[in-house]
Amino acid sequence: MSTILQIAYRLCYFIYWILDNISIAAKIRVFTFDWKVVHRISLKVRCVALLISLSAYLYQQPTSPEAAATARLKAYRNVFDLLPSLKDSGLGEGINEKLAGVGGLISSLISTYQIFIE
């Protein structure tokens, strides 16, 4: 089950990447449609990807304490990354700019820490 969730997570991020790049191309007028619509869809796909990643964490069976700590840190990063993602996609009605900013900041600090310790 964990492998299926990991594949779904990566597939969603791939779709997010494609849609986000299409919205950027539309924003600079390479395409002639409303870029905001595609951008919102891409952000919703990103939210789904983050939720799938969190679900994979719940099914994951870490083999060592180090693997468990790494998986837990990734889950925390995804939880905090959900805040700006939900707000920008329009799915997070009660999330204000400050909360989204703090979530993005903590997520980026966790990412920086993970890069630093590797």
Question: Can you characterise this structure?
Answer:
The chain is an all-alpha fold. The protein has one domain. Helices cover 82% and strands 0% of the residues. It has 4 helices and no strands. It has helices at residues 2-27, 35-59, 65-89, 97-117. The longest helix is centred in the first third of the chain and has 26 residues, at 2-27. The two termini are 28 Å apart. The model has no long low-confidence stretch (mean pLDDT 91).
Strand fraction:
under 5%
Backbone shape: globular
Low-confidence parts, pLDDT < 50 over ≥5 residues? none
Which secondary-structure class do the elements indicate?
mainly alpha
- Characterize the quaternary organization of these chains: single chain
Largest sheet: none
> What portion of residues is helical?
over 70%
Question: What's the number of extended β-strand segments?
Answer: 0
Mean pLDDT: 91
Run of helices and strands: HHHH
Radius of gyration: 16 Å
What is the number of domains? 1
Q: Helical element count?
A: 4
Measured between the Cα atoms of the first and last residue, the distance is 28 Å
Which features would summarize this protein structure in a list?
single chain, 118 residues, mainly alpha
Concise summary:
With 118 residues, the chain is mainly α. It is 82% helix and 0% strand.
Question: Mind sketching the topology for me?
Answer:
Layout: H1 2-27, H2 35-59, H3 65-89, H4 97-117
